[in-house]
Amino acid sequence: MQRFRGPSRFLTDDEKENMPKISKELIFRILSYLKPYWKQFLLVFAAILLSAAIGLLPSIITGKIVDEALVKDGTMANLIQLLLAAFVTMTVSQVIGVLESYINAWISQRIIFDMKNQMYDHLQHMPHSFFTTEKQGDIVTRMNSDIGGVSSVISGTLTSIVSNIATVVTTLVALFTMSWQLALVGIVVIPLLILPTRSVGKTRWKLLSESQAKHDEMNQLVNETLSVSGSMLVKLFTREEKEYERFVNVNEEVTQLNLKEQRSGKWFHVIMGMFTQIGPLLIYFAGGYFIIMKSDPTLTVGTITATVALINRLYRPVQSLLNLHVDFTRSLALFTRIFDYFDKENSIQSPKDGKKPKVESGNIVFNHVAFSYVPEKPLLTDINFTVPAGQMYAIVGPSGSGKSTVVNLIPRLYDVLAGSVTVAGVDVRDMDLTYLRSCIGVVTQDTYLFNGTILENLRYANENATMEEIEEACRIASIHEFILKQPDGYNTMVGNRGLKLSGGEKQRLSIARVILKDPKILILDEATSALDSISESAIQDALEVLMQGRTSIVIAHRLSTILKADQILVLKDGEIREQGTHEALLEQNGIYRDLYETQFRKILDMESGTND
Questions:
Q1: pTM for the full model?
Q2: Which domains does the chain have, with CATH numbers?
């Protein structure tokens, strides 16, 4: 006799509020991922139906064993024959079930494979603005949890629906074929099992939801305080005891909720376990009455036995089908979240037959450029300047004036809202995007390294670079000697985001990486900000070599860098307010002179003091 398990699946208030709208388009879109595997699905459904039909035979054969081998004057040969038949049918049913699960698992994994590939390719080509607005955790959740959850939809929800329906239909047909009176008696009990269970199930679901919320709170606490940065903060502010108290309190709440959830409904399940016996008892009572009172001469003890076995086979699938709307809604919600990411528009795409001009011999021109991250807050309003080919321009301005945004418009990390940015006389929006970005090298203030070896990070710029080229680039970037001192040399692991290296070491690797790329246009966004004055002096020589013959735009806060610029652009309030050489701008007594007096001169004095 199987133990009855009440339904514990309910829609949360949030799920009810955000229930996906069922439409023909949504259903067909989901089916489009299943369509390539329709032949395999037919095999699965055929196996389910065959297994459901064969699964009836052991119960029916049990009835025959009672009637033909035990009640009547049966022989041992007859008994053994029927027992072997029951064993064979059970074995065949199990084997078919295993084969069905294998095919099902293969289908679900292939669909996940297809969807993950599509999602990764889609996200790789999303504009930079997508990654600055979306939470990284949400992106990872879509890639892993949501798409991974498709497996449970295919192997769980979809096949479970078909399997349960097949089991219910075949079982009901068998029950009513044997004795419609006993079938009705067994079915009458089902409401007694379902209605009260849903009430208690909702209580358990509420406790589970509260417990999950507390689990999330505890996980958040663990992630924050036991991460690299979090643990350092805890230590520096000596908050170990306080954080431990917080953890103990949350852990206690989680424990109490888990205990409540486990205790809830224990007595109810005992009663429900008794209810599952009522159906068989009623069948025995009705069957016994019919036989004793000779109301149904065709009814046998074997029929009663088989009916009891089949009625128990009916309870679980009926209960599962009652939760069909929950499973169906959650499955649609899962696909809706995935499709929501697929439908996010890629606003920056490479044009068909994009142009590929000679970038090294062309000027960079900003013509009445306007841009904003938020429509109601314009950042750049009317940017106009020209960087002649082969020259180095510096951009200066107050913090938050949009200096980095200006240079990010050149490789089309963002697109202008008005005006145009042209390279070699071609609007960057009309250029082949891969070609455009391959011509540009960028060194940023926040250097990013992948969690791999130094060599792997360097070859990210040029996977075909020889060791001689790599070592030469590192010598120019003044990092080669440092690498050789490491136990594993160029195979040294840099750690997550390069945490095993100092800021200056990461920046030098970043510069070496750009040298290996050998770009036609060079953009340096606070490229020497993480270096001390001695390191900067060494790296500045490397950058001068790198910038020779290249069109370069430098955002710098160090006066030594700015002084080497052919022209200085002063950005303020979304416009280029001043342009000229260092001396010419000082004579104007304008914005640049204010910046010089408040920022650059102070830094220059500090550097002079350090050198002294």
A1: 0.70
A2: 27-118+139-178+321-343 (1.20.1560.10), 364-611 (3.40.50.300)
